[in-house]
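Re: your question from the hallway

Yes, I did run it. Sequences:
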Amino acid sequence: MHAHERLADRLRAARNEGRPALVAFLTAGYPDPARFIEHLDAVCAHADAVEIGVPFTDPMADGMTIQRASQGALANGVSLRWILDRLGERHDPDATPLLLMSYLNPLLAYGYEALAARAAAVGVCAFIVPDLPLEESAPFTAAVERAGTGLVQMVTPATPPERARRLCEASRGFVYAVTVTGITGGGGALPAGLAEYLERLRGVSPLPVCAGFGIREAAQVRAVGAHADGVIVGSALVEALERGDDPAAFLQGLLA
Amino acid sequence: MTELTATERDALLEDLLAGRLPDACGRFGPFGGRYVPETLVPALERLTDGVDRYLREPAFLERFHRELDTWVGRPTALTYAANLSQAWGAEVWLKREDLAHTGAHKINNAVGQALLARHLGARRVIAETGAGQHGVASAAACARVGLPCTVYMGAVDVERQAPNVDRMRRLGAEVKSVTSGDRTLRSAIDEALRDWVSDPEQTYYLLGSAIGPHPYPYLVRELHAVIGREARTQMLDAAGALPDAVFACVGGGSNAIGLFHPLLADREVQIFGVEAGGRGMALGDNSATLASGRPGVLQGCYTVLLQDDDGQIRGTHSVSAGLDYPGVGPEHALLQAVGRVRYIVADDAAALDALNECCALEGILPALETAHAFAGARDWAADNPGRRILIGLSGRGDKDMPTLARYPVEPRHARP
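Structure:
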C-alpha cells in the first residue's frame, strides 16, 4: 500500500467511527526545538493525521500566528533537513500518518528526488505545498509518487466547479478544502454556504475531504465535521503550544 | 536548474525576439510561471484573459496612450549629458523618466494597470512599494481613474522614504506599514498577497515590478516598453545612431526591462543591468541577485533569488530602497542565461558618488536606485573610451533626501 493510501484509510476509519477525522498542524521546532518530538508525539496520540510545518521566510498564505511560528522556528535553527533527521530518529511506521506542509522553495533547495526518498523513509505520507498549484506540480508529484507519497491538492471557495473536480482527482491522501477566501488563522464565524460547498466537494472527490483555515474550537469542529470527512486545526494548536498548554488536552477539547 | 546549452540559448533568444515568450504557461524559458495559492489561480486567469484582451484592444490602448501623453507627460526627454560626457570621455545620453509625472518610470505601469483594473470591474486596488515611487504612482493613478487604493510598505521603508508616505496619503491612498518579515519591499509584497488572497474577486493587485506570477512580468514589461521605444527613436533622431551600450538599474527590474526590451533585437547594442552591491558581496550585504543568486521560487515566480542552502530567502541590503529585493524579474533571469544582457554590480559608495557627480555636472538629482546605473556606466566608460552610452534615468532623487542627509557632499563634487 502506498503511504498516501494509508493516510486516506486512516481518515476514512475515523469517519466510519461516526466522527470527523482530526488533522492537526504544528510548526516544527516551535516554540521549542528541544520539545519538537515530545509535542509531535502528544499531538499524534490525539489526532488522525499530523501536518508538520516546515518554516519559511515568506509564508504568503499564512496569518500572523504561523508567520510568527515560522520566524521563531527559523530563529531556532529549524530547517527541512533538521526536521527529517528528527523524524528519522523517531520513525515508527504504524504511527499516526504524517504530512509535511512547506512552501515550495525549501523543497526545491533540498532537491525533489532526495526529499521524496528521505521523507518516505521517515514516515511522511503526503505533502501540502500552498504555493504549488496543479499546473506547476507535475515535476514534484512525479518525484514523490515514485516514492509512494503524494501531494494533497487544495480547493477553495473561489475554485470553479470544473477545476475543483480536477483538483479532487489529482489529490492524494485527502482533499484540503480551504473554508475561507483568505489566509490561515482567521477567527470569527465560518462563511455562509460552507456546508453546501463541502458537500459539493464530497460529491466529486474520491478521497476524504478535510476542511481547514479558521477552525479553532469544538463547536466549529462539530459544525464543519457534519459536512466534511475531517477538520484541520493549525493556528489554534500553535497558539496553545505557544501558551505552554497541554496539546493533548487542547485536542481532546476540540472533539468534546 | 541544468545549464542551458548554446543551442538552447540561441533558440530561447530567438523565441523572445519573435514575441513567443512568455509562453502559454507564463514561462520565459525555464523562468517565470505561476506559483501561487489556489485561491489566486482563478484571479490570475481572469487577469491573464483581461491582459490578452485589453492590451490588444485599440480603444484601451488609445486611452492608455492618451493618459501617457497628456497626464504622465510622455514622451519624456532624451538629454545629452555634455558635462558627464566630457568627464567620462564618452558620449552620454539620458532617458529622462525622472521627468514623468510623480517623478519616476513607475507611473507608466501604474496608470496602465489602474485603467485595466477599471475595465476588469475591480472595486479597490492594492499595491506594494519599496522606495515609495510605485506607491505614489499607484495612488496618483487610482485617484485619476477613481478607485480606492491601499499601499503596503515595509516599516523600514516608511521611515527612510517619509516624503513619499505623505505624498501617497495626500493623493488619497491608505498606507499600511508592514512590520512582519524583513519590513522592506519583500514583506510589503507578502502582505499585499495576503490581502489579495482575502478578496481576489473585487480587489486588483497593482504589482509594481516585472516580478511575481504570470501575467505580471509580461504586463509590467509591456506597459514600460514605451521607455525603450521612445529612447530608440530619440537616439536615432538626436544622436543619429543607436547607443553602443545601454545601462539601467535592476532591483525587480521594471525600468530596465522597459528600456531593454525594444533594444534586444539590435544585437550591436550592448546592454547592462546594474544591481545593488550594497556594502559588500557577502550574502545579506547586497541586493545583487543575478550576480550571486540561485534559481528558486519566491512570490509566485521561478527566478534567480538570494537564498541560503536551505532555500530560505536572505535579507538584503542596499542604500536604495527600490533595489532592496532578493529576487529579480524572470525575463532578466532569461536575458542573463542566454547572454543577451550582462548584469553588473555597483555598491552603495559608488552609487552615492555617481549621484553627487550627476547633480554637480548635469544639474539633475537622480534617485539612489538610478545612481547605480550611472556608476555602472562610468566604470564601463573608463574601460571603453569614446563610446556612445544611453542611461535609463529611471527616477528623481527628491525622495532620497532623508537618506542623503547622512552622506554630506564631498568637496570634489562641489562646484568651484
